[in-house]
Amino acid sequence: AQKVTQAQTEISVVEKEDVTLDCVYETRDTTYYLFWYKQPPSGELVFLIRRNSFDEQNEISGRYSWNFQKSTSSFNFTITASQVVDSAVYFCALSEAYSGGGADGLTFGKGTHLIIQP
Amino acid sequence: DTAVSQTPKYLVTQMGNDKSIKCEQNLGHDTMYWYKQDSKKFLKIMFSYNNKELIINETVPNRFSPKSPDKAHLNLHINSLELGDSAVYFCASSPGPGGAYNSPLHFGNGTRLTVT
Question: pLDDT per residue over B20-78, tens digit each?
């Protein structure tokens, strides 16, 4: 069975600080996909990134960067020079290529509530 | 153009009523989903629907039933609403099944259901 753990329930930092959101996953599949979504206070779910299990390259997109390490089953997300607009709940999610039965789709972590204080 | 749209955005109703939430996607995707987000923000899949094949999460009560008139629509019907059904319900779509590996799931903006 697949599982995603986001151990940090809430993080509060002051604007311009760097912050890392942790994500640890469990899966028996060798082929799987990892995602990060942002849910701002307005409530919609915004896709940030997808990474497949064969691509361990780290990725940077502006102030956002992701560190995927299969050896530790982690897919951490770092925001550099945080801004108030980054305040949101961030979800890490896992999708197996072959669900082996049961409803398909994403398995989400419980989310990390990030608060950026001005 | 909105890729995945849900209506209504807010739904307030009394216990025991039957209600529906509509979802439409204009992405040409083959697979659609319903997710439930509870008061603690936990997101959990309820159903996936692909090419007339419905896969149900076994924890979903049978008061919940998805109905798909065509590939672009997946509506959620809820009978005999209970207080515990209060949540935000998200519709989503992806190009195909197999765990959404082709593309990230595209989510609607959610429907906040409040049962009083």
Answer: 999 999 998 888 899 999 999 999 989 888 877 787 776 889 999 999 988 899 999 99
Say whether residue A111 is in contact with chain B using an 8 A CB cutoff. yes
As to burial, measured by CB atoms within 10 angstroms (0-12 exposed, 13-18 middle, 19+ buried), residue A97 is middle
The single-letter code of the amino acid at A57 is Q
Residue A51 token pair? 């990474």
For A36-77, how does the pLDDT look when each residue is reduced to its tens digit (9 = 90+)? 999 999 999 999 998 888 888 888 899 999 999 999 999 999
Backbone angles phi, psi at B92, to 5 degrees: -150, 165
- The reply to whether residue B98 touches residue A111, judged by beta carbons under 8 angstroms, is no
CB-based contacts of B91, cutoff 8 Å, min separation 6: B4, B6, B21, B23, B25, B32, B33, B34, B35, B74, B76, B107, B108
Please state, as a whole number, how many other Cβ atoms lie within 10 Å of the Cβ of residue A10. 10
